[in-house]
């Protein structure tokens, strides 16, 4: 097995020259700095939202995940600046030091990807709140992804090869498990999100705040994360080794960015919208009354006769019984989705709506 891993790790590509290494160090240095600046800038940009929507909430484990995914990646990126960049030669690292640095960065990337994917899993849970089979399936696939990524990293760490300035010269083939499982999992989550959104549009509730938010965030997160993980893996196995770390900090930045942005956006939409309530007297046959905030799906207003009664509420009465039945089904779906997002806001992903 050791022989197989060693042979697979050795590439036919030529060893980078001293000039190529110097150019690569500069490129890695500037790429790492750019990724760090991007992340810090976005953190500063969203600080006001964090203060408004995150600080007042109670401390739970999901809130802890939010802060970990927002600030730990900054520290990881700062540490990554010390290897494979222009300042590396000043520290006179030994070969053992370089290997230890690579172990740290590999484990940090694994940690960040696992917790970022947890946030994405909760986003899908919010869409399939009533489908327990899908929820269990997503959880099982997520567990398989973690196992495959861990196998890829921990089996490959002993066979990482570095040079005197800690540039990775050869990457074990087992890291394909890490990159491949991450990409496949993103495709899986995106497929579930897209399917649910299409079905929601057909059923008439796809433009309500929660489905729109989850579909939008799911789309840009899928393309960002798939692109960066594919680029990172390609550089490791296609480049001559000198540029292997060019995308590492961008991987960390974008996974962090997607995670805390999704949680902040959920907080925002929950702050500005609330579940609708429904009441109907079946004995008297009186028309049902729906009470909700003005951000209810605008198409619902087309079926209802809007009649404001309070500053923060709008009371709607249906024109006929058929419209009443249609709208009650719509609002029950919306309320069911809001029960799921409430579980996220309360940082309890295992919450089951009663």
From TrEMBL:
Record has Cell membrane as a keyword: no
Keyword Transmembrane: yes
Transmembrane annotation, as ranges: 24-44, 64-83, 103-128, 140-160, 172-198, 219-239, 245-264
This protein's UniProt keywords: Membrane, Transmembrane, Transmembrane helix
Domain DUF6533: from-to ranges: 31-74
InterPro entries in alphabetical order: DUF6533 (IPR045340)
Protein name: DUF6533 domain-containing protein
């Amino acid at each position: 097995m050791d022989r197989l891993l060693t042979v697979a790790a050795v590439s036919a590509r030529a060893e980078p020259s001293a000039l190529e290494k110097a150019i690569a160090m500069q490129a890695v240095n500037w790429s790492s700095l750019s990724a760090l600046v991007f992340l810090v800038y976005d953190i500063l940009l969203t600080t006001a939202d964090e203060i408004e929507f995150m600080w007042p909430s109670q401390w739970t484990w999901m809130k802890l995940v939010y802060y970990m995914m927002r600030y730990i990646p900054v520290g990881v990126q700062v540490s990554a600046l010390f290897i494979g960049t222009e300042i590396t030669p000043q520290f006179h690292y030994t070969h053992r030091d370089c290997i230890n640095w690579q172990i740290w960065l590999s484990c940090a990337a694994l940690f960040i990807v696992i917790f970022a994917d947890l946030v994405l899993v909760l986003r899908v849970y919010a869409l399939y709140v009533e489908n327990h089979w899908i929820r269990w399936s997503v959880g099982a696939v997520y567990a398989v992804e973690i196992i495959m990524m861990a196998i890829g990293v921990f089996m490959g760490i002993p066979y990482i090869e570095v040079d005197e300035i800690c540039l990775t010269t050869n990457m074990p083939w087992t890291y394909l498990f890490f990159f491949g499982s991450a990409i496949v999992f993103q495709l899986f989550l995106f497929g579930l999100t897209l399917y649910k959104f299409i079905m929601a549009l057909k059923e008439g509730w796809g433009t309500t705040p929660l489905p729109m938010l989850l579909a939008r965030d799911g789309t840009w997160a899928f393309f960002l994360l798939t692109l960066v993980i594919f680029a990172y893996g390609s550089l490791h196995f296609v480049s001559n080794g000198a540029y292997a770390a060019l995308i590492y900090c961008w991987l960390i930045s974008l996974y962090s960015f997607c995670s805390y942005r999704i949680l902040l956006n959920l907080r925002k939409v929950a702050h500005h919208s609330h579940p609708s309530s429904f009441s109907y007297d079946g004995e008297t046959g009186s028309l049902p009354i729906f009470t909700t905030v003005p951000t209810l799906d605008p198409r619902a207003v087309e079926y209802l006769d809007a009649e404001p009664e309070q500053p923060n509420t709008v009371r709607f009465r249906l024109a006929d019984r058929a419209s009443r039945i249609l709208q009650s089904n719509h609002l029950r779906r919306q309320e069911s989705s809001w029960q799921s997002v409430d579980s996220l806001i309360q940082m309890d992903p295992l919450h089951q709506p009663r």
